[in-house]
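Team,

Forwarding the record for the chain on the shared tracking sheet. I've put the sequence and predicted structure together so nobody has to dig through attachments.
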Amino acid sequence: MCKDHFSASQPTFYCFECQDKGARFILPWERHRLNTTKLFGTVLEEQDVIVTGRPMMDEERTKLWMARYCIKTDVFLRDDQILYPPKKTTAEWKGKKALHLGCTRYVESEAQQAVHIAMLYPELQVVWWNAGEPVLIQATSRLNERNVRDGALL
């Protein structure tokens, strides 16, 4: 659940501390209220940002690429200075950064990273871009006897 001041929900009980008495909360089934534009638009909207796995040392090259394609939005690059981090590490950073920025939806072009982000951050709506044919990804890291039988995933 994400805290905001725009949602319709004002629960009388919740399992975390909140100092703002007028705060409202976005429940997972209400995320679409913040993203009122087309669900998977191909044009970046004013509120969209780019969270990339590229390191800060690629900032100039990244901004030149964005200018060439007339992309005018904020971009956030990794600041860990690791040249080739594992995909799971990059996915973890992207998800954390997206949540820190207040994002409720994340579009990822790389399938493996999309699955990792969805698994690590279920509060994000994760979409694998899939070369322009978007796929909503939902994942869990928990396997139990209900979804595994005789060693096979059900």
